[in-house]
Amino acid sequence: MSEERKSSLEELRAAEARLLVPTYDRNAVLFERGEGVHLIDEHGERYLDLLSGIGVNALGYAHPAIERAIVEQSRKLIHTSNLYFHRGQAELALRLVERTGLDRIFFANTGTEAWEGALKFARAHAGMLRSEGMRIGTKFLAMEHSFHGRTYGSVATTHKLKYREPFEPVMPGVEFVRFNDVADLRTKFSEDVCAVLVESIQGEGGIRPLSLEFAQVARELTRTTGALLVVDEIQAGMGRTGKWFGYQHLSILPDVTTIAKPLAGGIPLGAIACTDEVARAIHPGMHGTTFGGGPLACAVAIAVIDAIENEGLLAHALEIGGYFQQRLRELQKRHTMIAEVRGIGLMVAAELHSSTLARQVVKRMLERRILINCTSDTVLRFLPPLVVTKADIEEAIQALDAILTEETAEAQLAGGNKDGQ
User: Fold this and answer.
1) CATH class of domain segment(s) 77-310
2) How much of the chain exceeds pLDDT 90, in percent?
3) Which of 105, 206, 264, 378 could form a cystine bridge with 301, CB 3.0-4.6 A?
4) pTM for the full model?
């Protein structure tokens, strides 16, 4: 029997160009497997992954707890309709209730589906309050620079025009508040608002943490009218910041939070966590999903949560994240190209002064087999697996230092040539 023929990168690129809807601008690398914090390409070259599938692979690659859960559960049951019981949902929901501080869970497939559901929950809750005689509207207050996903409600509450304009008209009833501007929030909040929508740390918006004052004022305002505080934890949640959820750094408890990305270690799974009060507005038939909370995804998510806890990865994220920011700030002192370093835990950013430079740095890091990306035009985003080590961070810092040194020399040479002309 002949070996299965492997497509080369060139063949795959040609096939995708012919067959796929062109929604992604891919880098010219073909990955075939992963180990720990590294991805391995078709030629056996190892790449240090400091993006972790955009925050998904919190335990890295080929983690034994995930492999074991997949094998064991796949032998039992992969899918069954939500018309019936299976053991995984209640067990996983208990873990999430204990860690979020909220009361009830709805399982979805993705982050954007969880966010879409959260918007529906907020409107349903407002409708319930109106039926009980309260004055409350249907407007959402979302944040400037926000990103919540690609479905219609998610796009409508996402600030960047490039995500909304091609699909207009999007869902009405959304107004944007200047991020971390308490005065603007107070001005725009009223009885017309059914929910204030925030990310505890804006991811696509440039790794910008919500301020303590803004979070607490939002919590106080919503309580005065019965409106909900809804926190998107899709990128910041599940231990990335050194706590289970980013809002836990802010001394607030939301009414609703959304969870996804690392929840099931790469198996698609999202979740909405909410209070009993919010759940009061939802009854059977109002919302649902075919695949959300399936047996395989739940089994893997349970394994991920237990591994994060058993391996002490919350404390590790804080320690290594702090070390990473310290080393980046040391680079900042040597390279004026770095405007700011910020983040919490292992959700880290280095903002550069130039979008062209940011794209060039990402490209040159890839040439050195280190994976990062650029978000919000000028921000280098680092979302490494929670199992990353100081040695891995040092490798990245040395590469960044070399690249920025080269870029400085090239800029000075170009400037000198221009002056000479």
Assistant:
1) alpha beta
2) 95
3) 264
4) 0.95
